[in-house]
Structures are given as structure tokens and as C-alpha cells.
């Protein structure tokens, strides 16, 4: 499936339910909340929740990165000041037009704004807008931007510990791949000729009134070259449809709903142009023992009353080897203890912490000896003046 961010039509802040001045932490919290609420595992057979989940993931992908967010904000601000996209720009479909009186009107591919062609997001950005409008006049020495293969999105479901530690898994993808006969060139001989219509520039020009306009050459598709002996196996496209197997490395610490980008692993581009990217959308199964808060792991450990009252050292699991945790005498039920460096390793290499919450487990049955000992303790407790409800509900 191709990935095509149409920023002009989307309000990513509204999708996450935050303001445009939201902090990165507010954006992260809003994403996590909405991703959990609309996750496919929690909403089976609910297409509306699935669409909301996809919209939230896309919004987070744009706004979580400071550079991409600034580019998005700048673009939306430009549109609000009078720029527009549509089919009415002086009769040029898909044209860019300024507000009346701003002094220019030009026609160029909307993909230039995002730095991509054919719906495949890549480098470029807002600088391409102004480069396209002001630096393309005249046509001398310029060529059309080559197209590239489509981006592909797939989905994987990981166990909690696989997501936390990172994993490698095989994937099978069906889509356009380089033709093995012509090695992706589209030509039987591997040679191409300069397009006679655009003289190899990739653009054709047209004068309309006092303005000159250019557009990609329709004969060569904007490449500036033509194939005269098309490959019989791919009909000159340079690509064929086939299934291929690749191995994907999922980095440690991915969160539920995150997308992992693998550059150049998407569909092959036509006639030897670059391949698109592969986006792997990740779902993470809940774990029976661990939960996660950022890079910290949380675990609830059952303990006895005696272990809390007298103090003890217990063994608790981690993502690797178990560790021993010391419980101080008199530790209250529900206290959370921190074990530093035993959480999820951040991209910087600094691990989070393991948060251990102790919870008293009461025995359902006692033998005669244990019952007698406990009654003796209870009496000693009362004799000492201890009242567990002394400060509770107004008691004095």
C-alpha cells in the first residue's frame, strides 16, 4: 500500500486532540491514550476504530519529530495566508495559486512540496516550493525530477519482550521488483535515447499571456530519455510483479502503533529509478508480568506480611536475568521500589528503570501451628498498642 501524506487536507493536531502549541510530551501522551483506545486488538471488527488508529499513528509520526513538525506547521501557515491547492488554479489541474495580488501564479506537481513523486514520501520539503516557483524559469540546464518506486506499508504483531529487546523477523512482500532480464532499465539493450520532444530536459514549456509555464514531458514521462527497444518481459517499465522475502530488524524499544521505516525496501522504481521505502506498522501484545511507561518497566510482586514487616531480600524477573531486591523492614503494602537500569534501553543507549510494586498475598488456609503462632502475634500486636485503623476514617 502506498503511503501519501496529504498535509493540505489533514489537521494532525485535531486528530490527536491537542492544540498547535502542544509540547512534545503532551503529543506523546495524547497519542498513547488514543492508540490504546482504538487499537485493533481492543476493537475487533470495528472499522471506525481502525481508521482512527491509523489517523492517530500518522499524526504522531509527523508531529513527534521536531523537524517534520516544523515543516508541517510552516506549510499549513503558508496555506492559511492564501496559498491553495485545487483544480481551479487558472485552469491548471493540481496547480498552486497565490491569493489575489500576490504577484505570481505557477503550475507544478503537488509532490514537489513533500519532496516526493508518485506518492512516496522522502527528502525535500518546503524549500522545494520556492525552488520550484522561482528557480525553474527559463528551462535551461534543468531536468524533471525522476520518479521512484511506491512506498509499501505492512503490519506485524510482536510479543512484549520482542518489542522491548528488538527482534529480527522475515517478511514476504508482493509488489514491483526490478526486472531480471533488463536489470531494471526497461530496455532490451540497456540503452536509452534523448527525448526529442523535450530535448532531454524532461519538461515542455507553454506561453500563456505574459507567463511561461512548464510541465513534465508526456512523451518521456519527465525523464528526458526514451526507450526504443522495450524489454519483452517488463514491457519497458523495468519492473515486474513478484513476491520477495526480506529480513527486517525491529529496533529495541518500539511502542504499540509505531511505524519503522526501512529506506529503499519498498517497490522498485520504473526504469532503474530508486525504490520506495517500507513502513512496518507494529502492534505489541500485552505481557502477563510487565507493563511499560516510556522506557520504564513496571511489575507487581506478591510478598508476605512477614517479608514487609521484618524486611527481606526477594528475587524478581527482568527482561534478562532475575535480580535480587532488598525490602526494608516496615515497608508498607503497595510501595514501589526502583531498580535502576533494568528497564528498556533507549536509543541513546541509556536504559530505563524497573519499578517493583510489592503487594501482600494473604494465605487462604493455615495449619494448626501457623494459626497458633499468628494468634500469639495478634495478641502481642494488640498489647503493644498498634491499631491499623488509628488514623483511618476519623478514628483517634
Automatic annotation (TrEMBL):
Ranges where the J domain occurs: 11-76
What InterPro entries is this protein classified in? DnaJ, DnaJ_C, DnaJ_domain, DnaJ_domain_CS, HSP40/DnaJ_pept-bd, HSP_DnaJ_Cys-rich_dom, HSP_DnaJ_Cys-rich_dom_sf, J_dom_sf
Any keyword Lipid biosynthesis?
A: no
- Where are the CR-type Zn fingers located? 166-243
Key words of the record: Chaperone, Cytoplasm, DNA replication, Metal-binding, Repeat, Stress response, Zinc, Zinc-finger
Q: Name one GO cellular component term.
A: cytoplasm
Where do transmembrane segments lie in this chain? none
Detail which positions bind Zn(2+) 2.
Answer: 195, 198, 217, 220
Known cofactor(s): Zn(2+)
Cofactor binding comment, as recorded: Binds 2 Zn(2+) ions per monomer.
| Ligand binding (Zn(2+) 1) | 179, 182, 231, 234
Pfam families on file? DnaJ, DnaJ_C, DnaJ_CXXCXGXG
- Compartments reported by the entry: Cytoplasm
Where the CXXCXGXG motif repeats fall, as residue ranges, is: 179-186, 195-202, 217-224, 231-238
- Spell out the molecular function terms from Gene Ontology: ATP binding; heat shock protein binding; unfolded protein binding; zinc ion binding
What does this protein do, in the record's words?
Participates actively in the response to hyperosmotic and heat shock by preventing the aggregation of stress-denatured proteins and by disaggregating proteins, also in an autonomous, DnaK-independent fashion. Unfolded proteins bind initially to DnaJ; upon interaction with the DnaJ-bound protein, DnaK hydrolyzes its bound ATP, resulting in the formation of a stable complex. GrpE releases ADP from DnaK; ATP binding to DnaK triggers the release of the substrate protein, thus completing the reaction cycle.
Protein name as it appears in the record: Chaperone protein DnaJ
Which organism encodes this protein?
Corynebacterium phoceense
What does UniProt list as this organism's lineage? Bacteria, Bacillati, Actinomycetota, Actinomycetes, Mycobacteriales
**Name of the coding gene:** dnaJ
Amino acid at each position: 500500500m502506498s503511503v501519501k501524506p496529504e498535509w493540505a487536507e489533514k489537521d494532525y493536531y485535531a486528530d490527536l486532540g491537542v492544540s498547535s502549541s502542544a509540547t512534545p510530551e503532551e503529543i506523546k501522551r495524547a497519542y498513547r491514550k488514543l492508540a490504546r483506545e482504538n487499537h485493533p486488538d481492543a476493537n475487533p471488527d470495528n472499522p471506525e476504530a481502525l481508521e482512527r488508529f491509523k489517523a492517530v499513528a500518522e499524526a504522531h509520526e509527523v508531529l513527534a519529530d521536531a523537524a517534520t513538525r516544523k515543516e508541517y506547521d510552516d506549510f499549513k501557515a503558508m496555506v492559511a495566508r492564501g496559498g491553495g491547492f485545487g483544480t481551479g488554479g487558472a485552469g491548471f489541474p493540481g496547480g498552486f495559486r497565490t491569493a489575489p495580488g500576490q504577484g505570481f501564479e505557477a503550475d507544478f506537481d503537488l509532490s514537489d512540496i513533500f519532496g516526493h513523486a508518485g506518492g512516496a514520501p522522502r527528502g525535500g520539503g518546503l524549500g522545494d516550493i520556492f525552488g520550484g516557483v522561482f528557480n525553474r524559469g527559463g528551462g535551461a540546464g534543468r531536468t524533471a525530477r525522476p520518479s521512484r518506486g511506491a512506498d509499501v506499508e505492512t503490519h506485524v504483531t510482536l510479543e512484549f519482550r520482542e518489542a522491548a529487546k528488538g527482534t529480527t523477523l522475515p517478511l514476504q512482500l508482493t509488489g514491483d521488483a526490478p526486472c531480471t532480464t533488463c536489470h531494471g532499465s526497461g530496455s532490451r539493450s540497456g540503452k536509452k535515447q534523448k527525448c526529442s520532444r523535450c530535448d532531454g530536459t524532461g519538461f515542455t514549456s507553454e506561453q500563456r499571456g505574459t507567463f511561461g509555464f512548464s510541465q513534465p514531458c508526456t512523451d518521456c514521462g519527465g525523464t528526458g530519455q526514451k526507450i526504443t527497444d522495450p524489454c519483452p518481459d517488463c514491457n519497458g517499465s523495468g519492473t515486474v510483479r513478484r513476491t520477495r522475502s526480506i529480513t527486517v530488524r525491529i529496533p529495541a524499544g518500539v511502542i504499540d502503533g509505531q511505524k519503522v521505516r526501512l529506506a529503499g525496501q519498498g517497490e522498485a522504481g520504473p526504469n532503474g529509478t530508486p525504490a520506495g521505502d517500507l513502513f512496518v506498522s507494529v502492534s505489541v501484545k500485552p505481557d502477563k508480568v510487565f507493563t511499560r511507561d516510556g522506557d520504564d518497566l513496571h511489575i507487581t510482586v506478591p510478598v508476605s506480611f512477614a517479608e514487609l514487616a521484618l524486611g527481606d531480600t526477594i528475587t524478581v524477573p527482568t527482561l534478562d536475568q532475575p535480580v535480587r531486591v532488598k525490602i526494608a523492614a516496615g515497608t508498607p503494602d503497595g510501595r514501589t521500589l526502583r531498580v535502576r537500569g533494568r528497564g528498556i534501553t533507549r536509543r541513546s543507549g541509556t536504559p530505563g528503570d524497573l519499578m517493583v510494586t510489592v503487594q501482600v498475598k494473604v494465605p487462604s488456609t493455615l495449619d494448626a501451628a501457623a494459626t497458633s503462632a499468628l494468634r500469639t502475634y495478634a495478641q502481642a500486636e494488640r498489647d503493644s498498642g498498634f491499631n491499623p485503623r488509628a488514623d483511618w476514617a476519623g478514628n483517634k
